[in-house]
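User: Structure with glycine, tokens only please.
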Amino acid sequence: MEHINIYSGKKAISRIVTSDSIKGLGACLEPFRSIFAVIDKNIPVNVQLMEILKAKNVRIKYIVPSEEDKTLETVMNICSWLLENGADRDTMILAVGGGITTDMAGFAACIYKRGVRFGYVPTTLLSQVDAAIGGKTGVNFEKYKNILGIIRQPAFTYICSQLLESLPKRDFLSGAAELLKTFMIEDNGNYQKAADLFFDIQSEFHLEVMMYGKDEKTQWRELLKKHRKTLTGLIAAAASIKAGVVSRDQFEKGERRKLNLGHTFAHAIETLAQRENQRGLCAQNESSTLPAEEQHFPSGVTHGEAVAMGLVLAARLADRYYRNDRNETTALESKISNDFWDCDIPCYCPYSIEEMAETMKKDKKAEGGKVHFVLPKSIGEVETVELTVEEVCRLMK
Ligand code: GLY
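Assistant:
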């Protein structure tokens, strides 16, 4: 078990606990008298977790999280439930689930009775290494993602790698992309270690499933169990990097921007894919309907997949910007994309830079026509530079 703190100045304001077992959660809940939990209904029941909650008389509300329902209305439903059940100022709200659940329950905690304490048990790799660390809470509004929200730190985040074993492979790999992103920002040794681990898991999985015909779900679960200790160490290392960045720049005035490595491209890819798929869903008789075979991502694109594509594009941009590498596939781009392919994380972006340009201009992080692009100088070192989208288009061609 490892303890990592987030600081404001010299004061510890949030604690991250990483462990390969759920047992230690009890100690995190110990100081709280009245606990209300918001739990993702889709996560498989974990008997040990439920016993810990029962021992503390935790009241539970289940939600079915989705991007569409990541709204003020859902947050108000959580607040109504708190009110109806007599939650007072001394209440602690515990969120158990992925990033949508922690973002919404955290936001409800920030506004309920002008703010009560809250804690997180993230259950996806994506939320363990990103969403549940750093205190960003919020909801979608109008057509903008996470546009309404507050940055406020949870009392604790309990990160348990054991909970990941029920995660489907695609969701796990989505988180793996964010984990690799974190190490691209700060830690060269762990980047390679993580890439090697995911490659090993992937190779063993293919061998057992393709060659020996083993059941995919069972095999995936067993492999995550087998590599649990190494994974816990890598998650702790990534959490520690993010905790350091957040301690130095909690409110994203400067350094915290580097956590957005690959994300300006990723958001554009997610928007374009969503647009195509919405056209695909339009009534059959509409002329704008796009048949499934013409959609680039008929089964959608996960956030991590879009991030992987964004990281490859950021590597290309950096190669062009710093080294004037004019090769068709630049050096760092080639290294990153090979690593992602080896881990079975899709990282080829099917959209042209011109197609992405419009959505990048609208990115909420764009200021005065310029966008903050985070560029990897090398693996483990990044820099944020301000570029216009036109400059980026020129460099990428
Ligand atoms: N997901 C980026 C951040 O927390 O700042």
